[in-house]
Amino acid sequence: MKKNLSIFATLLIAIAVFAFLTKTAEADKTVFGSGSLEDTEQVKQISLNYLRDNTANRAIGSADELKVKSVEFDELNMAHTKVFQTVNEIPVWEGEAIVHLKSDGSLRTITDNLKDSIIVNTQPNFTAEEAEKFAVQMYDGAAELSENPKVTLWVFRGKTRDHLTYRVEMPHLDGTEHTSIPVIFVDAQTGEKVFEYDNLQTASGVSLYSGTVNITTDLVGSTYYMEDTTRKMGTFNFNNGTTTAARYTDTNDVWDTTAQKAGVDAHYGAAATYDYYKNVHGRNGIDGNSGPGSVTSADGTVSLVSSRVHYSTNYNNAYWNGTAMTYGDGDGTTFTPLVTLDICGHEMTHGVTERTANLTYSNESGALNESMSDVFGAMVELRARGGTITTDTWKIGEQAYTPSTAGDALRYMDNPHAKSGGGYTADDDPDHYSERYTGTSDNGGVHTNSGIGNKAFYLVAAGGTHHLSGVTVSGIGTSAAEKIWFRGLTVYMTSGTNFAGARTAMLNAATDLYGGTSAQYNTIATTWCAVGVGACPTTSTPTPTPTATPAPTPGGGGELIVNGGFEGSVSPWVNSGTGAFYTANGSYPHGGTGYDYFGVNNNVSGQAYQTVSIPSNAAGTLTFWLNVSSSESASTPYDYMYAEVRNTSGGLLRTLATYSNQNQTTAGTYSQKSFDLSAYKGQTVRIQFRSTTDGSVTTYFRVDDVSLK
Description:
It contains 11 helices and 33 strands.
């Protein structure tokens, strides 16, 4: 009997222990979420460990040189660790990664813009003060700088090599059409100019006047000030000057004078923008903490985010300068005052972008920066005006732009080609990636190429068929679209994100919010395909050819390669060896986001192949895009990649071409290769890429967009 009791007691204890462990396991499904200091430190360590594992085969230097910038927890109980790359403690321009963790501490994904194979001397040959002098001499408006230049040291990846540079930012805010914030990267060894762009983030004019509105002001003594101490925002008057902005005051809180009206619009627009971000996205203003404040309120209680109106005389612009919004009155012909709902949303979104992804204001990242401001400017206006979509919702600046011409606009989100007078591309603002402007004007097309992102958002929200690609998109409405766009921007983008990276960011955001098999996810994928970025999802609308081109007939010109763009996965390609790699979200795709690459490490070999049956009536033409970047000298071949045709057992039938480090160019600069495979019609063969590397210095061979017809 004692023995039976003992067994029974043991059984009870076992059941209790099991229940405890089960309960503990359930509790441990969320290992963080409070955002405490302990959680933050735990997330840092988990994230850095994942980065070390994922970069073990990457030539990015020591993982210990990756520095944590911030850890953020979101409403989905996910954690996001933003990391920047350094070399000898010097930050790498646009060298960033974000590690995204699920609530149980497991890896969701990594946004990876780290720079591979950096080779740079980190010892400058001259001081920051001397770099400032060099940059000022390079800038023809030097005599009129309005503030002292700001100088910081960076490692910068140039077109042909890596540079140690001084980044010199030189504010020139004089109220003329030359108002700008030029940024020049000066090589810290040679003194040469490496790169430049204008960091004055402008709207180019947006205004939809709101008439009589209610605004929040502050009473101090017997005087009212145009200051909202709850939202921590204030509006100030430049009085058509450029140096000092005065407080707006009134004795009866009825703001109706001519000089006050522009202030009312800006103040109302700032409040509407704040409320939009707060109520729709849960964000407290520009920096997430009701800041950045730059002026103390009249009652001395809070620091206010500033809107400044009546800037200069006949100033046809508005801008965000990193600390405040500034609005011109226009010249009455090109623009009337640029001070209302969507322009406030546009300018304040520049601030939100700066405090999150910090998209560099040049080239594709700059176009995304501008597009984000147009998108959320439109959404601010839509919400403030009751949520009913009209044709004006998709117009930018329709009432402020050329006031004597009714119905026109500065930009059109639904039809970017409707813009006139740009002159950068044949159809003015492009709405498809193939039409993008690639010159240097407009900071590399930041306002011009924003049409691609604008068209994408319009299609996601409203649906439609793209006139060039022929792809039809089923819209999901503005509510889902704006949530995906906001999460994509603030969680998954980094300063160097391009259009391919934006597509990946939006897909990640859609997965988080609605699931990876949802209609919303498929709409995002289809939309970016429609505007020429990435492939359409095979589970929904198939990728059509442009309407002007007939569909290929089977065998007689049809595509034989499956997943030639390496999108979503490497399958059905077969990678093997220690020198073959696949990335779904690489820094240097030719198209889309994925590609296969070879080499990378020393003394390795690797290969990738796909088995293909070539019909007797096929053309037999193989093409692919190749990019070779290397730290080797180009004088002698050391590292090799071979394009091959093999039989199904792997036996070599023909070496199509041999490439080496002698074929090197800059990372991301591809050239198309073409070969005649008509000799293999009626056969099943392997198309293979194979690489070998020697014992010193690295080479990358990137292969993308493979086609066989």
